[in-house]
Task: inverse folding
């Protein structure tokens, strides 16, 4: 296996302000995020010759990566990739950027990911865009329902409760409240969570991400280039991918996720274990998504996440390894994957104020797509 | 104003035999004629042995609930009137899983619950397989 350890760095990050941005969020917001990432890196567009773009928006733009490159004045590009692994796309982009650089395809890669709620007609669709002949007739819609199916299995097998899920929501909301970037600031107690209505039972309102959209971007260059740039580089130490199934019907397990194997690969490449991790930004498409990954990464044993959350938890200044310090998809912004990466970079650079994990040197980042189907793990180091 | 219609299957080359079976109130599943493995949803290629040859065989219609969820909010306007409703993944006796509704009170549904198929006409062309709670298999008489 290609060993990419300690060769490539994230040198610039950019984000749009989250919210319901615009119907062209998949391009317009991506350009703003990219411009901010270039500025953050102290690079000009002419320094970048590779673009990887991800968009899980409705009506995505064809050849988005090249479109973004053109609108930023980067074309002709040596590397262009439109990538679609749902919420796992941003983390996967890190892998493909590193591979392109390792192969000498290009000298710097802009990775950009946006999510738009409105379609190209400027409307938020009031019914699902995609239908499937074997699930839609029964009213099975939305990614949430897949996670709810999985959570139900975990509850049945291990005695996990809705309250355990609530502890994740409460911790992430506490982080969002001290993050100026986060959208939701209302306090959330465990009672608020338990009293919130069912959406797709066993998931309640506060187990699910808030509505919203936006975009983020980051730039990856070889280590040799990184040292002369504007901000301290963040080193990519480990990457792993594991994609267990396309949907829950064929799944061997929904009580274990791809994190177990993708994590093993990333830890192995980086030469670290969970004991070395200081902060974790892991996909929270629902609270259950976090819970299962806590077990699979080794925060606790399989089946014991509930107990772990009651005793240790994931909150900054309380937990050994704080999780989703920005507030995640649940409370910061519903832009899958990309803000977990930008937050990890911010934590490793320091300067996160009240939500800073003091002395953070090693970050674990996960990307997860669609019904625990796609999974990528990154290990980043200061 | 007409009520929004529910999305119905448009049978494809791969699935037409399945939906024809449902219209005849028969639950059919696809079986590979080379290796005998069954699969669902239908696919032209056997994932076990790569054969392109398959047939459709009757399933018993019996299975158990592998998992389920209860929708309390409508993600599609046509289902507003059914709230709350259960969607389950049912593991058939034959070993394949399929998604469908469990009829009856949502509170009664449990993982592992035995179910059996029923058929519901959704349109002149399409009949949907759904499932109802079934009595557990009678225990063998003791010696």
Result:
């Amino acid at each position: 296996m290609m060993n990419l350890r300690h060769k490539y760095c994230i040198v610039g990050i950019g984000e749009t302000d989250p919210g319901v941005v615009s119907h062209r969020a998949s391009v317009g917001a991506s350009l703003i995020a990219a411009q901010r990432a270039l500025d953050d890196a102290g690079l000009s567009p002419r320094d970048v010759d590779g673009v990887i773009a991800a968009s899980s928006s409705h009506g995505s733009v064809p050849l988005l990566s090249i479109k973004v490159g053109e609108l930023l004045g980067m074309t002709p590009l040596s590397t262009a990739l439109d990538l679609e692994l749902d919420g796992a796309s941003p983390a996967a982009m890190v892998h493909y950027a590193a591979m392109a650089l390792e192969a000498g395809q290009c000298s710097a890669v802009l990775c950009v990911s946006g999510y738009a709620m409105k379609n190209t007609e400027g409307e938020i669709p009031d019914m699902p865009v995609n239908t499937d002949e074997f699930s839609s007739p029964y009213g099975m819609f939305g990614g949430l329902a897949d996670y709810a199916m999985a959570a139900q299995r975990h509850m049945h097998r291990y005695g996990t409760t809705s309250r355990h899920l609530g502890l994740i929501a409460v911790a992430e909301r506490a982080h969002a409240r001290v993050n100026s970037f986060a959208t939701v600031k209302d306090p959330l107690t465990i009672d608020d969570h338990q009293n919130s209505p069912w959406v797709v039972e066993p998931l309640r309102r506060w187990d699910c991400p808030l509505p919203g959209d936006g975009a983020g971007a980051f730039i990856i260059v070889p280590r040799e280039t990184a040292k002369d740039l504007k901000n301290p580089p963040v080193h990519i130490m480990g990457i792993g991918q594991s994609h267990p199934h396309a949907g829950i019907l064929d799944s061997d397990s929904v009580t274990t996720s791809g994190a177990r194997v993708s994590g093993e690969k990333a830890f192995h490449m980086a030469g670290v274990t969970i004991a070395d991790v200081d902060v974790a930004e892991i996909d929270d498409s629902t609270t259950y998504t976090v819970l299962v990954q806590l077990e699979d990464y080794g925060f606790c044993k399989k089946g014991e996440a509930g107990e772990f959350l009651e005793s240790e938890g994931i909150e900054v200044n309380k937990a050994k390894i704080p999780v989703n310090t920005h507030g995640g998809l649940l409370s910061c912004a519903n832009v899958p994957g990309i803000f977990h990466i930008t937050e990890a970079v911010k934590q490793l650079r320091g300067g996160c104020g009240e939500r800073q994990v003091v002395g953070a040197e090693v970050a674990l980042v996960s990307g997860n797509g669609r019904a625990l189907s796609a999974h990528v793990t990154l290990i980043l180091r200061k | 104003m007409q009520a929004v219609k529910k999305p119905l299957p448009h049978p494809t080359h791969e699935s037409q035999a399945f939906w024809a079976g449902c219209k005849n109130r028969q639950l059919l599943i696809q079986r590979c004629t080379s290796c005998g493995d069954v699969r669902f949803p239908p696919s032209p290629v056997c994932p076990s042995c790569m054969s392109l040859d398959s047939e459709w065989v009757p399933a018993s219609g019996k299975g158990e609930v592998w998992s389920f969820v209860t929708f309390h909010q409508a993600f599609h306007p046509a289902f507003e009137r059914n709230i709350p409703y259960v969607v389950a993944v049912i593991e058939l006796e034959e070993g394949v899983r399929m998604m469908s509704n469990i009829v009856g009170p949502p509170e009664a549904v449990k993982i592992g619950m035995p179910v059996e198929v029923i058929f519901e006409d959704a349109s002149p062309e399409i009949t949907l397989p759904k499932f109802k709670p079934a009595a557990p298999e009678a225990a063998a008489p003791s010696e």
Observations:
- Chain B has one helix and eight strands.
- The mean pLDDT of chain B is 93.
